[in-house]
Amino acid sequence: MSVPIPQPPRIPFIGNVHQMDTDVPINGFMLLAKQYGEIFRIDILGRGSVSINTYALQQELSDEKRFRKFLGGAMVEARALGGDGLFTAFDEEPNWGIAHRLLMPAFNAIAIRDMFNDMQDLCDQLLLKWERFGPEHIIEPTEDYTRAALDTLALCTMSLRLNSFYTDDQPKFGTAVSDFIKECFFRANRPSILQAMMTGTNHKFYEDRQYLWSVAENIFKERKANPIAKKDLLNIMLHSEDSKTGQRLSDDAIIKNLLTFLVAGHETSSGMLSFMTYYLLRNPSTWRKLQQEVDEVTGGQRVQVHHLGKFHYLEAVMRESLRLAPTAPARAVTPREDVVLNGKYSVKAGTPCVIQAWLTHRDPAVWGPDANEFRPERMMDGKFEALPPNAWQPFGFGTRACIGRPFAWQEVLLIMSSVAQKFDLSLADPSYLLDLKQELSVKPRGLQIRARLRTSGPHLYASPSSQLLPRAAQSWSNYAKSSNHVEQSNHAGTSLVPMYTLYGSNTGTSEAFAQRIANSAPAYGFAAKLGTLDSATGNLPTDGPIVIVTASYEGLPADNAAQFIDWLTSLESNQLKGVRFAIFGCGHSDWVKTLHKIPLLCDRLLESHGGERLLAPGLGLSGKGNFFEVFDEFESNLWKVLSEKYVVTQSHFASIGFEITPVDTVATRANTLRQPDTALGTVKVNRLLTQPGHAIKRHIEFELPAGMTYRTGDYLSILPQNPPRDVQRVLTRFNVSNEQMVVLSSVGPTSLPTDQPVSLYQILLGYVELSQPATTQDLRIMSDVATTDSTRTALKEMRSSYQAKILAPRLSVLDILEKYPSSDIKLSLGIFLRMLPSMRIRQYSISSSPLWNPQHATLSISVLESPSLADKNKVFLGVGSNYLSKLSAGDRVQMSVRASHGGFHPPEDPSTPIIAFAAGSGLAPIRGFIEERAMQKRSGRDVGKIMLFFGCRDPEGDYIYKEQLDEWVELGVLDVRPAFSRAPEKSSSCKYVQDRLWENRDDVVDLFEDNAQVFICGSSRVAKGVMSKWAEILQSNDPSLSAEEATKRLEETMQGRYATDVFDV
Ligand SMILES: Cc1cc2nc3c(=O)[nH]c(=O)nc-3n(C[C@H](O)[C@H](O)[C@H](O)COP(=O)(O)OP(=O)(O)OC[C@H]3O[C@@H](n4cnc5c(N)ncnc54)[C@H](O)[C@@H]3O)c2cc1C
Ligand SMILES: NC(=O)c1ccc[n+]([C@@H]2O[C@H](COP(=O)([O-])OP(=O)(O)OC[C@H]3O[C@@H](n4cnc5c(N)ncnc54)[C@H](OP(=O)(O)O)[C@@H]3O)[C@@H](O)[C@H]2O)c1
Ligand code: HEM
Ligand SMILES: Cc1cc2nc3c(=O)[nH]c(=O)nc-3n(C[C@H](O)[C@H](O)[C@H](O)COP(=O)(O)O)c2cc1C
């Protein structure tokens, strides 16, 4: 029986235009496919088409007897340039047949092999450029790959040198192609009457067309006037006859095909190289394996043509990159006669069917549950050959498949092997997540890398942990400048010993600690350079001590340490002889099994490979009150050991390195130094979720910065500002006006804006944490400048009873200064600023689904505003939550999306049931899961049930999103089991979610047996409570189990079916 093909709701005349993502169309198609499933119909301005999203349908449509290539929309517009050239020809046009038969032999294996030397010529230009740039230069690889691909194509097929590497701008040809193609897509989606009125746009379109045509025409005329003997593609077209018809291509047809090759043959290959670079760097072990293979095959010699066939791993990387990121993202076919697809969907002859390779290539039915992962191993050792037929189709299918495939393959093999042989690459922003740019083909947007020669010495550079921070760093007169200061002071004749402080950090804590050590270094006789761990991959210096501060994430390294750890793990013994190191690890006791895993691994490997451990690793727990004290102790031991091991000249710590000069002018405020608009999201809604008298929770909706996308379950990182109240407290204590401008100068690296006039208010607002507990070192510094004995004694006591007097009440430096008259502790504002850690980002679970609105994301936050632990009469304000809570519609916020860890996303198959436990604002990500299922259900998909255990205090006070949850229950996607901790009588006597779990255990066990996935979100106490109650359920079913056995069995049963996202404030 025929089943209607689902279709998103249409608007009269324009159809589904509003559901299209005009910037990156495949993003829109991916979301629609999530919502509507294997197939859906869309209608753009009266033109209907069908989107094909699964392997099974792709396979069915890969049958030339029933389907033929369809040329419509933008491709028809592109015929203004390509006409009946190979790519844009209709099947039946005679020139397609002639060109196809003439040119196929030009791409046979021997012909391509003969092009190797020309290809290498251009590849060398790329390598030379990157080498000359040096290790700290930020490279836009896509631009350089485009230069290489365009020039290679022109040289190999037309014997023409375009010399794109000799211009700073992108080649004009490339820009004109890009503008022309973009406009083809717009024209295809514009009503003709509107098109006719857009005279400026039309003029530009025809101007671009004319320019491109003239380029090809000149190549053609030049060759006719100056013939050469080489058997290149142009000569084949000029001089050969079609064996079947005896006809030659007309001049006009030759020019169209020249253009076709120039256009079709460079963007796709350069995109492929760019995606490979991204995937390899995101998965450092694959990059290392590739380098190993290239080294083994070439033995260090220049890459030769005979090496290419031996790069088996590289080939697997190429296949896997093209699977995940097919740069030609879709192809269209149409049924020759009316058909019924998959035995149920009727499609009329002539209807365009768009095969979405970005979706079919990720179909779990072929690629398994890890279909979204980059795993080259699935493409080698016979596995590629064993794939089901037509599962991998980045080059199209049948007679209209890509003619340039062998050309692109050889070019990419050569370029990528040569790059891997010569450079260590790293992402300029370690937290960069793939963002797409789509024209005729797809490329990564904003991908930036650094390339360091594999044989060179150490070159550290500081690349801040968060996507948000690098921009800040750049605008804050940048780290590089600060580290130059260090070098300058060294060269100036002082006897500072080199030192390297390296960090692996996602949210900035380890980075701030590393920076603190680097700041103090000059005082102890060291010139510290600050850098990410990744920046030291392959090159650990031996001319000074190395201090590493690093975190772990689910047992894995932070984003900017992944390459380093991978390298370290791959070393052989004694390769690190001469390296002297000390390590401080940041961790959290919630991650019991992987506590401090990365710092401890570093410590072990550095030593086992011959490094000398300078002191025992310091291990701090970020959730524990004594975190800073543990760090202080480590730092003080560090300086002690270093002063014994190295000959250094020390100076007084409090007076060196950081100066502050007031400036008279009240000029433009320092907030002009904030990050560029591209990362600024806009607040749309900020509303209260709780009733008066209850702890405040709020719903905040943002419009994301342009081009930023997210998956359900991801986080939003926010760079907050301190509460103005606390900034004012500092100004009052130091008796300065809030209009005060200052110039900061620093000898060591700093994340404050130096050497330019800035507003002190802005620095205090946005660049430093004001409420962290004072460290023992801070207390020592304050003692040093205390003017009365009684104050000195009090500060001494705080040090000796640090836990009770500082950590328990969380007394900050500011709190302490406020306790005494300013004449008692004569601390300068400069030293105060230097004591403060730099502002950290705060992460929040996104509580919406992109199926609801891909450009908007919501947060559900709990506002930290409670009586201060230091003084019950004062109120403590959490920085991030209060900053967010005060935002109004229209405010702009610095933000970035971060992928969530540990599979905290809705299952790929929406029919999989879910059991979720959430308390308070822990509902955030689960709300996104439910919203996603609701959207899918409303679109006609079969969705599995979500059984939600939700904990709050009271049904009337803080039952957040109650109405919406009720709506989703009504819709049939949700079943809520609340637990009201302060009104358990209203929730079947259950106080907490774990009590409700016990109460409803039979339902839970049934759903779990029905293959449900389990998710827990909230504080760690909730996760512990749920897991121990679940173990009790197992015990109650099998009383022979001990508590330990029950826990073990639970872990086994839950394996792969359970994910938590917990964090305590
Ligand atoms: C992955 C992840 C996802 C998260 N998702 C969410 C979410 O969806 N919603 C949400 O609301 N939160 C979420 N959080 C928590 C969030 O990131 C912040 O930690 C939280 O908002 C508190 O930050 P803050 O800046 O307001 O407080 P901060 O300024 O960071 O203050 C917190 C510190 O102050 C201390 N403190 C607490 N009370 C007092 C007091 N009375 N006196 C003195 N000191 C005190 C605490 O011990 C803590 O060290 C998430 C956290 C993570 C890691
Ligand atoms: N992705 C994430 O990691 C993420 C996302 C959002 C929130 N969070 C975290 O989740 C926590 C929730 O904060 P909130 O202010 O929103 O919550 P809340 O309102 O303080 O608490 C929510 C409910 O949980 C109950 N509860 C307290 N102790 C419990 C326990 N041991 N077991 C089960 N339930 C318990 C509370 O009961 P009583 O107060 O009556 O005891 C209350 O009913 C925070 O620590 C936050 O950082 C994490
Ligand atoms: C990674 C690189 C490349 C990819 C992913 C790619 C992909 C594709 C795809 C999917 C098609 C079929 C389009 C359709 O069915 O509508 C195609 C066709 C074509 N490609 Fe490529 N291509 C690549 C490189 C090249 C190169 C280097 C050239 C030229 C040297 C080239 C020239 C062509 C031509 C001329 C066609 C049209 C063939 C015809 O219809 O007869 N391509 N390509
Ligand atoms: C999602 C997530 C996973 C974590 N995993 C671990 C872990 O496996 N082991 C550990 O010791 N700490 C873990 N932590 C705690 C962090 O390492 C710790 O908070 C650290 O201070 C963060 O440092 P950073 O700010 O420099 O990134 C995790 C924290 C989060 C948010």
Automatic annotation (TrEMBL):
Keyword Transport: yes
Keywords, comma-separated and alphabetical: FAD, Flavoprotein, FMN, Heme, Iron, Metal-binding, Monooxygenase, NADP, Oxidoreductase, Transport
One GO location term (cellular component): cytosol
List of residues binding heme: C402
Presence of the UniProt keyword Nucleotide-binding in the record: no
Signal peptide (UniProt feature, chain positions): none
Entry-linked Pfam families: FAD_binding_1, Flavodoxin_1, NAD_binding_1, p450
A GO molecular-function annotation: iron ion binding
Coiled-coil segments: none
Residue ranges occupied by any FAD-binding FR-type domain in the UniProt entry: 676-907
Family, similarity comment: In the N-terminal section; belongs to the cytochrome P450 family.
Protein name: Cytochrome P450
Taxonomic source organism: Tetrapyrgos nigripes
